[in-house]
Specification:
This protein is α/β, with parallel strands linked by helices. It is built from 13 helices and 12 strands. It has 3 domains: about 50 residues, lambda repressor-like DNA-binding domains (434 Repressor (Amino-terminal Domain)), CATH 1.10.260.40; about 130 residues, 3-Layer(aba) Sandwich (Rossmann fold), CATH 3.40.50.2300; about 130 residues, Response regulator (Rossmann fold, 3-Layer(aba) Sandwich). It is elongated and about 85 Å long. The termini are far apart. This is LacI family DNA-binding transcriptional regulator.
Length: about 350
């Protein structure tokens, strides 16, 4: 008998109990004695029985699955968060379906449609753009549980996220406080309208009375180590080089550090570098890199908790709520010890 053909009736015939008794036993109902439950579970396992979740979902209106959409599967922070989310949902009895938009708006829409067609109970999303959210907002307005993992307080969609503007401000302020006045930024988010980090950078410069110089900005057109390497090459090719650099993620910062090593530039004596996300590789780089900490555990716990509240609310979702987590700096050798 194949796994797909095993029915409750087959287990009932094998055990001598009714189909109803078998169904209750496999659901762990206290109405069935433990000894009977154990016997039925043993026979079900021997027959390779798998419950029909599709049939169950038609009754309960729940599939016990959550969709998770990432922008980039190679991003270390997104993968750490995805793993934490999967474990958190598993503890609550939910499975996780993954999709990646690859920073493509059409792929993001396809992922949304795919998850809805599979009737997942809710979605957690890293949106490609933090501002262009009409396609997601429309789904939320139809009482569909969605929580964003990057937040805009005015989006009309629930979100739990690290305050990127605050983190970038703190990183830039740290460079200023350690004596830097010419501070460069490596950030590829502006074309997508994801301005939080550049806004934090500009705010810190303004408050310190430092004039913003466009020549000290580099768009790496990506998020990888190699993109950071060539962006650093651009910044350090200016006539008056920066003495400090803020990179929008740690992979870019590692690339910037590698450029310095290849070109005889001492970090932090000649140029200080600070990144964002606090990934493991930043701590163990040849010169450990200072970074803005992305609190994976806190984001995961709060985002899943909020989504579960929305799922439980059924068709009467509460008003959207955005939770912004203030990040801390992790200071390492890449920004200290300058003489």
């Amino acid at each position: 008998m194949t796994r797909s053909s095993v029915r409750l009736k087959d287990i009932a015939d094998k055990t001598g109990f009714s189909v109803n008794t078998v169904s209750l036993a496999l659901r762990g109902s206290p109405r069935i004695p433990e000894e009977t439950r154990q016997l039925i579970r043993t026979i079900a396992e021997a027959l390779n029985y798998l419950p029909n979740h599709i049939a169950q979902s038609l009754v309960s209106r729940e599939t016990k699955t959550i969709g998770l959409i990432l922008t980039d599967i190679t991003n270390p922070t997104l993968m750490r968060t995805a793993q934490a989310i999967e474990l958190e949902l598993a503890d609550r009895g939910y499975g996780t379906l993954f999709a990646t938009s690859n920073n493509d708006p059409e792929e993001e829409i396809r992922a949304l449609e795919m998850f809805r067609s599979r009737q997942v109970d809710g979605m957690l999303i890293y949106p490609r753009s933090h501002r262009k959210l009409d396609h997601i907002r429309k789904i939320r307005q139809s009482n569909y549980p969605i929580v964003l993992l990057v937040g805009d307080p005015d989006s009309g969609i629930d979100a739990v996220c690290v305050d990127e503007r605050c983190g970038a401000y703190k990183a830039t302020r740290h460079l200023i406080d350690t004596g830097h006045r010419r501070i460069g930024i490596i950030d590829s988010a502006n074309p997508l309208g994801n301005l939080e980090k550049s806004e934090g950078y500009l705010q810190a410069l303004s408050e310190a009375g430092i004039t913003f110089e466009p020549v000290l900005t580099a768009d790496p057109q990506g998020h990888s180590v190699m993109k950071g390497y060539w962006a650093m090459d651009q910044l350090m090719s200016t006539a008056n080089r920066p003495t400090g650099v803020f990179a929008a993620n740690d992979s870019l910062a590692i690339g910037a550090l590698r450029w310095c090593q290849k070109n005889g530039v001492n970090v932090p004596k000649d140029v200080a570098i600070i990144g964002f996300d606090n990934i493991e590789f930043a701590e163990h780089a040849a010169t450990p890199i200072s970074s803005v900490n992305y609190a994976v555990d806190i984001v995961t716990e709060l985002a899943v908790e909020r989504l579960m509240r929305l799922v439980a609310a059924k068709d009467a979702l509460p008003d959207p709520r955005v939770t912004m987590i203030e990040p801390d700096l992790v200071i390492r050798e890449s920004t200290t010890g300058r003489s």
